[in-house]
C-alpha cells in the first residue's frame, strides 16, 4: 500500500512539474526567452518544447498565432547567416502550426492569415538536386524557390508543400498530399502529387457537390452566452431522458 501511494504521489508530481515546464518554457512576445524574432505578435505563443528555431531576425509571426510543440521554424540554410534587410519567413495573423510541423525558409516563404496546419506538416522552399550522377545527392547544391500559401487555408496532417508552390485563398490540402505548382482559390487538393478533386464556382457552387449538409446559419443577434446556455439546456434534456408514460403525478 505505501508503495502504491508513493507511485501515485510521484505521478502527480511529475505531471504538475511538466505542466509548469510547459507554461514557463512557452515563448511569447512578453517572454521571448533566448529567441529574438523580427516580430512576434500579440497573443502568439510557441508551445514548449520548441523544435529547431534559427534565423529569428528574419522571421515575422503575426498576432494570435498558435505554434505547437516541436515545431521547426528556420530562415536561411544555417544559423548565423546575414539574409539581408527583408523578412524571409512570414506568418500572418491567426496562423496555427500543429505539433511537429516544419517550415523551412531558405528563401521567401509566406503563410497567409488564418491558415491552419495539422500535425507534422512540412513546408519548404528548398529541394535537393541530383543533376550530377557522380556526386552524392546530399552534397549537391540545393534548389530554392519561394513558397506562398494564401489566407484561410487548411493543411491536413502530414501534408508536404514543395518549393515553388503557390496556394490560393481558402485551399484545403488533404492529409498526406504533396503539393507543387499553383493551386487556385477555393479548391480541395489530394494525392501525391496533389491534384484538384473539388472546386468552388460562384454560380454552380462546389463541384462535385459536398456530401455533408450545409451548415445552418446562426440567427442574427444571438450571443455566445446564449449559444452556451442553449447547449447546456439540450445536454440536460438528453441526460434526463423522456418521461415514461404514466409516471407523472
Automatic annotation (TrEMBL):
Q: Does the keyword Transferase apply?
A: yes
Q: Which SUPFAM superfamilies match?
A: Trimeric LpxA-like enzymes
Cellular component terms (Gene Ontology): cytosol
Key words of the record: Repeat, Transferase
Cite the Gene3D superfamilies for this sequence: Hexapeptide repeat proteins
Q: Entry's CDD domains?
A: LbH_MAT_like (cd04647)
Membrane spanning stretches: none
Question: Mind telling me which PROSITE patterns this protein's record contains?
Answer: HEXAPEP_TRANSFERASES
* One function term, GO molecular function aspect: O-acyltransferase activity
The organism's superkingdom is given as Bacteria
Q: Which family does it belong to?
A: Belongs to the transferase hexapeptide repeat family.
Q: PANTHER family, per this entry? A: ACETYLTRANSFERASE C18B11.09C-RELATED (PTHR23416:SF23), SIALIC ACID SYNTHASE-RELATED (PTHR23416)
**Know the name of this protein?**
Sugar acetyltransferase
Q: Which species is the source of this protein?
A: Streptomyces inusitatus
| High-level lineage | Bacteria, Bacillati, Actinomycetota, Actinomycetes, Kitasatosporales
